[in-house]
Amino acid sequence: MRAGKYVVASFSPRSYNECMFLLVILALLVAGCSDNKAAPLARPAPAAPVFVSKAVLKSVPIEIQAVGNVEAYSTVTVKTQIGGQLTVVDFKEGADVSKGDSLFVIDPRPYQAQVAQVEATLARDKAQLQAVQANLARDMAQEEYARSQARRYSELSQQGVLPKDSAEQTDAQAKAAAEAVRADRASIESTQANIAVDQAALDRAKLDLEYCTIRSPIDGRTGHLLVKQGNVVKANDVDLVTINQLRPIYVTFSVPEADLSLIKAHMAAGKVSVEANIEGDPSVEKGKLNFVENTVDSTTGTIRLKALFDNPAAKLWPGQFVRVLVRLSVSADSIIVPTTAVQTGQDGKFVFVVKPEMTVESRPVQTGRTIERDIVIEKGLKQGETVVISGQLRLVPGSHVEIKSDSPATSSQELSQ
Questions:
Q1: How would you write the pLDDT of the chain (417 residues) with one tens digit per residue?
Q2: Burial (CB count within 10 angstroms: exposed 0-12, middle 13-18, buried 19+), residue 312
Q3: Residue 354 CB neighbours (<10 A)
Q4: Which CA distances in Å does 360 have to 52, 338, 345, 391?
Q5: Distances in Å between the alpha carbon of 1 and those of 12, 14, 332?
Q6: Distance CA 75, CA 179 (A)
Q7: Phi then psi for 358, rounded to 5 degrees?
Q8: Which of 189, 219, 277, 368 could be bridged to 376 by S-S, CB 3.0 to 4.6 A?
Q9: Cis bond before residue 408 (omega within 30° of 0)
Q10: Residue whose C-alpha is closest to residue 340's, from 390, 273, 411
């Protein structure tokens, strides 16, 4: 409508709302532009402190590590071979004994009596043999006389000088004398057989008497005494004591079957050195590999090996677990870095390499054997490159780093070398 010179426009509620919305949007855009103009430039992230090490090239030994178990070179369980009362225990538990040393004594009196009895029987049979031999000599003489008589009587009978009955009688006497000789010879054989039986019985009795003293069959160390003095024991009934031979001694361990061909090749070329280390003992025992099992354990994929150690100080003890290191040979020059430098990501193993501009690069690597605190890098690094060994959690590719070291001079020298 008109009111004088002024025109009054009327707006619907919908148009009013749209105008207000546009005004709010315009205000927000203006505010955003003014904030962008006023905001200062973002500051670069601070350098991450790290410790580094050089990748070095050097010869490293080919070694196989394993956990081994010590076994006695020989283990003997001592038992008695006869029965009787244990009258003497001739050693102390845990003592070292030598082969042939007396360990136990069983009451020998019953066995001494048995030896005396068998000796008497043997002496009687030998005397009887002499008597039978004397009878044989006598009967042989009588047989010879009877035969000569029978020949003479037979000749005289044929000449008609003597009756035929006399010749037949002397012939019968000669035959009887021959049978007596045969009987004497049979008696001699029987007596000789009795003597052989007596001799065997005497040997057995003496052996039983010898068994009364139980001696150590090997050089070794005795264990716990299982039967005390004064007890009555039976033959092959209970164990008396166990002796373990400690010098030399075995260490048994298992390695992956993948190492079998390498080990066999080195054994064919010469002796393979093996080292054993006891937990908490800095010293190392050295031995030689002397046994490879004839089959691979299909359940574990490993093969059993055995090394022989001189063990002069008896540091290796049966049943003990030790760390075993098989030294095969020295390989050609290899790139090695500390094991802490190698990280594991979704794409495999990698290291952070420090560039001259003090930024890091994530470099994938292929690792090899571990030698104490170092690891062989078979692919991915070159000699002299600097890798981060501590502080990797703060790093991403391209991060700036600050090298930390014991002295300030070391940090500047790490990259200049």
A1: 444 444 444 445 555 556 566 666 666 665 555 444 444 545 666 889 999 999 999 887 788 889 999 999 999 999 999 999 999 999 999 999 999 999 999 999 999 999 999 999 999 999 999 999 999 999 899 888 888 888 887 887 787 777 878 778 888 888 898 999 999 999 999 999 999 999 999 999 999 999 999 999 999 999 999 999 999 999 999 999 999 999 999 999 999 998 898 899 899 888 899 999 998 888 999 999 999 999 999 999 999 999 999 999 999 999 999 999 998 876 668 899 999 999 999 989 999 999 999 999 999 999 987 777 899 998 999 999 999 999 999 899 999 999 987 533 344 334 444
A2: exposed
A3: 20
A4: 11, 17, 16, 12
A5: 16, 21, 105
A6: 63
A7: 65, 35
A8: 368
A9: no
A10: 390
Token pair belonging to 222: 């005795």
Cα dihedral across residues 296, 299, 300, 306: positive or negative? negative
φ, ψ dihedrals at 119, nearest 5°:
-65, -40
How do 220-222 and 273-277 pair as beta strands? unpaired
The tokens describing 97, both together, are: 């004994």
The token pair that represents 173 in the structure block: 């006497």
Max CA-CA distance within the chain? 216
Would you call 117 helix, strand, or coil by DSSP? helix
Structure tokens at 403: 């090298």
